[in-house]
Amino acid sequence: MRGANFLVCIVIVTLSGCGGGEFQDLRDFVKNAGADMRGKIDPPPDIKPYEPFTYSNAEALSDPFKPRKRDVRSTNRNGLNLPDFDRPKEELEDYPLESLKMVGYLFQRNVGHAVVKSSEGKIYRVKAGNYIGLNFGQILSVSENEVKIKEMVQDSAGDWTERESSLQLVE
């Protein structure tokens, strides 16, 4: 029995040495981690008083559900030529430019022609001067690899601006 008591005393002394101050710095950190923190809440935003809208003269206002465009036939402030609205439309003006693909090139009677395929699979032959796309696009030149196009687009202020686009040959 004496040997067992002696063994128990040795185990207790050994275990008490393991639980010493080895992790004391960690315990101190956890204990003091939130000591200097104070919560701060921002003040609520100012609330503006509600101002009701009077509908007595609403007939004079523009309809919010209709686009706000000026007359497209007005004078352009940029000094650019306006699109010709009275000319007959060509077949490829019914398609967005993004849906058309240049699939070939022909050279006949000293004139280069591009072979263009629509999204519906129809094939068209076009040359410089033809119109293409939804934005009054006029073909400037046709080469073996590319069709260069000048488009007329209207911005939100109603002004017309030119932009160049192209169709690349798809192989």
Question: What does this entry look like structurally?
Answer:
The protein is an alpha+beta fold. Strands 4-5-6-7 form a four-stranded antiparallel β-sheet, with no helix packed on it. Strands 1-2-3 form a three-stranded antiparallel β-sheet, with no helix packed on it. A hairpin with a 2-residue loop joins β1 and β2.
Keywords:
171 residues; 26% strand; alpha+beta; 15% helix; single chain; SH3 type barrels; 2 helices; three-stranded antiparallel sheet
Shape: elongated
CATH topology description:
SH3 type barrels
CATH class call:
Mainly Beta
Question: What low-confidence regions span 5 or more consecutive residues with pLDDT below 50?
Answer: 70-75
CATH-derived architecture? Roll
Amount of beta strand: 25-35%
Structural class: alpha+beta
Q: Which oligomeric state applies?
A: single chain
N- and C-termini, Cα separation:
98 Å
Number of individual domains: 1
Mean pLDDT across all residues, rounded? 79
Write out the strand line-up for the largest beta sheet, numbering strands in chain order: 4-5-6-7
Major β-sheet, in short? 4 strands, antiparallel
Number of strands: 7
Query: Which percent bin holds the helix content?
Result: 10-25%
- Cα-atom Rg, whole angstroms? 40 Å
Order of helices and strands: HHEEEEEEE
